[in-house]
Amino acid sequence: MSATQSFNTDLLRFLDASPTPFHAVEAMQEILLAAGFEGLDERDEWQLKPGGRYFLVRNGSSLIAFCCGSDNLLQRGWRMVGAHTDSPNLKVKPSPELHRHDYFQLGVEVYGGALLNPWFDRDLGLAGRVNYENSNGELSSALINIARPVGLIPSLAIHLDREANNNHSVNPQKDLPVVLLQSADKQDFRVLLAAEMAAQGVSDVASVLDYELSFYDCQKAALVGWNSDFIASARLDNLLSCFIGIQALLASDKESHTILVCNDHEEVGSQSAVGAQGPMLESVLRRIAGDEVSLQRTMANSMMISADNAHGIHPNFSDRHDANHGPLLNAGPVIKNNANQRYATNSDTSSLFRQLCASQSVAVQSFVVRSDMACGSTVGPLTAAAIGVKTLDVGVPTFAMHSIRELAGSQDAYNLAKVLSAFYGLAALGVAN
Q: Does the record carry DNA-binding as a key word (predicted)?
């Protein structure tokens, strides 16, 4: 098995294990612990050691992992990679029960900018965090993953909507309630949930108090295409970058001071206690640096690469791209540019990345949105503004971003991991402050 094949095998396994940000962080913790990283608690006083490798988790959905290198931190600075753990999905409402014509359905709320039409006629599992009271009256929580198809959103037959192929908009309130079962009796979702938790080994549930649960596509991640040119999966945006980042971090050398930050809530603006617009990363950096002056001196020698998927040029819709900036799948990572700072890339940081790609014999591409279209954004500008660090936005080119099933090239993730590993090992940036 080649290095790329081995990488992709582990990537597919990670994607399948991560139906929600909670599960993604749990999977990343397992990878880090197996590699010798030590878990930290923000409530404790930290005793960090040169050569030490650590991680911490906040809310169960955001993670920061870092390595304390042997070189002088003030002179070398941090090499940071940022990604996000969340993806657009359908979240179960707090009081979701709908009983109509002897069908039991759950009302859902759309999280993020989901492409909604692909959610119809899919086998849907259900996963997330459940908070409950145990038999002793204590509060507790558990992650659950109902990986079997427990729900679906049936399309309306074309015979009843003759214009469906010409003009079909989706009303999230009316069209997306998920069919769970058929019964003339009233059902209580929390009671069903408690029974499912008991079946999964969480037996001491006196009552379910609340939950953060999302439906997801049961179809597993896979290599697809005649020659297995592509990876198809849910949540490639942005679990792909989380996995790439963690593999690059594991390969970093002992001299470097390296950080991987994977924030939740990017798809809804990042403004939360665990989002990139919140204080999580800055608070950790302050604790590592020790004092304000050391923090500012270290930051001046540091750089962040924000890794989030880029829009590959779609062969059926090539007119949606600027003709000179249409990234191809399996043709290298993409530098994301925007004159209005929707991406944090500048010529210093992009030039450094081009050098790194050349050092690893990896091709590199550029993306700029059409001048007559609005541009998306990611955690790069938010992090740059929050902590004042030089930043670059890059990503793996992708089709069908924000669909229930996205598509990326089977060579690109491994190649970006090679480049990020080289970035982690840089002794000097060679770019302006």
A: no
Using alpha carbons, select from 261, 260, 217, 253 the residue that is nearest to residue 235: 217
DSSP classification of residue 119: G
Please count the residues of the chain.
433
Residue 381 has pLDDT above 90, yes or no: no
Contact call for residues 91 and 176 (beta carbons, < 8 A): no
- In a shared domain, residues 276 and 375: yes
Q: How many CA atoms lie within 13 A of 30 on its CB side?
A: 11
Please tell me the total count of domains within the chain: 2
Handedness of CA 320, 323, 327, 330 (dihedral sign): positive
Sheet holding 230-233, edge to edge: 222-224, 230-233, 406-409, 397-399, 310-311
Statement to judge: residues 145 and 244 lie in one domain? no
pLDDT tens digits, one per residue of 385-432: 889 999 999 999 999 999 999 999 999 999 999 999 999 998 778 766
In a domain, 227, yes or no: no
Please enumerate in sequence order all residues whose Cβ is within 8 A of that of 148, keeping only pairs 6 or more positions apart, or say none.
Answer: 125, 218
* Residue-by-residue DSSP string for 209-242: EEEEEEEEE-SPPEEESTT--EEEETTHHHHHHH
Q: Region 292-316: what's the mean pLDDT?
A: 95
Residue 369's pLDDT is what? 85
Let me know whether 327 and 264 are in one domain: yes
CATH number at residue 362: 3.40.630.10
Return the CATH number at 158.
2.30.250.10
- Of 253, 285, 121, 135, the closest CA to residue 203 belongs to 135
pTM > 0.85: yes or no: yes
